[in-house]
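Archive entry: two folds, one per protein. Generate the first.
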Amino acid sequence: MDEAKARAVAGWLIDGARSAQDSSAVLAQLCERLVEGGLPLARVGVFVRTLHPQLMGRSFIWQPGAEVQTNLAPAAFALSAEYLQSPIAWVYETRQPLRRHLADPQCLMDFSILAKFRAEGMTDYFATPLFFTDGAIHGATWTTRRPGGFTAQDIAAIETILAPLARVAEVRALHRIAANLLDTYVGHHAGERILAGKIHRGDTERIQAAIWLSDMRGFTARADRMAPEYLIGLLNAYFDCQVPAILSQGGEVLKFMGDGLLAIFGIPAGSDRTGETCARALTAAREAGERIADLGSAEGDPGSEPVRFGLALHLGEVLYGNIGGANRLDFTCIGPAVNLAARLEKLASRLGRSVVASEDFAGHCAADLVAIGDFTLPGFAESHSVFGLAEEASSGTSATLSSV
């Protein structure tokens, strides 16, 4: 590949690779342009590390005539022999390129993947660092089946496009990291709204939602008698019982408050999906309850009491958006409906029930919930009808408060 064609491809990257919708398309179009320019590529891989609580990074693999393969590497992969003994790990550590002429019988085969490539007919392998502006090192690999391997012009062409490729990869990676962190800390839907520009105090909207408010029973006493490291482990295990259940049913976790959890199941405006939404919230509640029951007693808890939770489900209008100080905002929901859910959650504890629901919510899940009674709740003038799981009633769970 000659220098002029390589510079043309570099110019496309410098312009932001704007014809490509996503990172996979960037790699696909890049390789197509390089091949059209005369670079004999058989396989190209780009490896980008990321900032994510569960992932080490992502890999993108291009081969002629196939869609780009995208793979996610879990955080534990960074400690695996497969990674530690790979050319990419070597490039990350040394910050230097690595080349192996696989067509040469005397080629140093110091990484196991090189034998695999040679068996597939590859004749040359070139691994290169991608330098991001923050000093982080990422990588790319280039292979060919051309007899004799890459020419000096081919290597020069690859080197010409490395810096602009790194810039494009960095911009795309930063956007993904921002989305990942927002998804992790504020929730997927809230994160999307923030990235879309809903970042000003007062950027709120009224929505209808099924509200989930839960906490762990006896948490204060546990915190007093458990070592902090065990308590953190318990909270993580406890929330692992709830969060996947909520997300799998289309809910959004908005906030962790010590041992408390606030989530909503939004109802699209003007839709007739209220009953379906309440049913999904109740399904998540049952699943979470089963998982928490399976936890048994907590490790490191001298009390050895089984872990239990209380949950209130309510249906109503909430104000959803940015609330807080001028430069420290929280994306959450507030309103009388949330306050009522908080009162119901406290009532669940006093009633000895794991799940209680308001009349508004129960009206959409009549077959699964039974009336417990009418109760006066702090801060509310009128009494409220409260409902519980039918199976809890049949198992002999009794209320510890009288109806009013």
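Generate the second and append.
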Amino acid sequence: MKIGILNGSDLTKPERGGGASGFISNILPQLPFKVIIFGIGYSNIKTWEEIPIYPNAKFISIANFTHIPQKIPKRLPTLLLYLYNRYRILNSGVDALYIHSPECALPFVLSKSKIPIVFHQHGSANPVIMSIYKWARNQLFTQIFNNIYKIIYKRADWIIAIDKLCLNQAVKNGVGQKVSLIMNAVDDSIFKPDENARKETRNKYGNLNYDFILLFVGRLEEVKNVDKIIDSFLYFPDKKNIKLYVAGDGTLRRNLERQVREKRLIDNVIFLGYISHNQLPSLYNMADVLVLPSSMEGTPMVVLEALSCGTPVIASSVGGIPDIVKNGVNGYLLEQVNPRAIAETIERMHIQRFDRLTVSRSVEHWSSKNIARELGEIFNKLIK
């Protein structure tokens, strides 16, 4: 059995570890079948050249985005590229397509193909609502994407929902029985408690044993609410030994750095910039808490990765997060996302402290090995 995976990213770069790309990267070594990933290169990769990633997986770039102007949302050229290459992908010898974004799926569900099509929905919210392109957040584009999802629900052979909200959305829109709930996957052979890494990384950044370390990992965009984490420091009576490490980059970085200077928090908030995926286990182990107060999420990789490393989480009660984070067990959910609520929850976790092995065991079900087995069962059912 050979499966074609469609995702508009460059999977030859393992550091591209967020969202759908992170999910695919985590399950690839465990999948019980051969895989060809039809993606888009972000470097000078030759198009349609097979690049081995794992013994069972190869990457093919159908185009590259090295010259796409930043003012153009990548979703539009991605849709057009998969539409243009539809025939070639369908006739590449794969037995089924496993598609991870609506703009990649639409060209293949508009008309019936001879091979099964599985669509994995990575979030219940409309993807343009919080676009970094504010002009794209209007009602027209929102409705267009709502209609794209309805077409996919109707015409795909199977839908995989990343959380219960996605599942309910698919069922409400008439997907019927052709749907499964498979939440994100984490490679627990890499993301695991490591006391030596904790000590070494805390020493590397000059942290004392009694310093309480907060960590944010993700894009520095409006939807992530990093500014609210920073403002939460204003509610700490003594913030001398509380630090926040911000791992990631984005359009709001300069604004956030200015906010830190204006609030006189330069000793408390440290911007690490871009961090490669293989550096994240050490950061998670260094931290006492991961903080993710996003306005919109699916089932975030960073939450599963942090918990798998034994690091408890403070996160918004959105998307699939409430299915993973349990109050008092492996972290706390934020019912209100504001600086005061974040500060009060941090103080609570500072007092409580969590057993890192217990936190790690709370996400054993979401290991990449378990999720790969569930996916294998779905494709075996569809391919006859």
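Annotation attached to the second fold: The chain has two domains: 2-185+367-382, 195-364. The chain has 14 helices and 14 strands.
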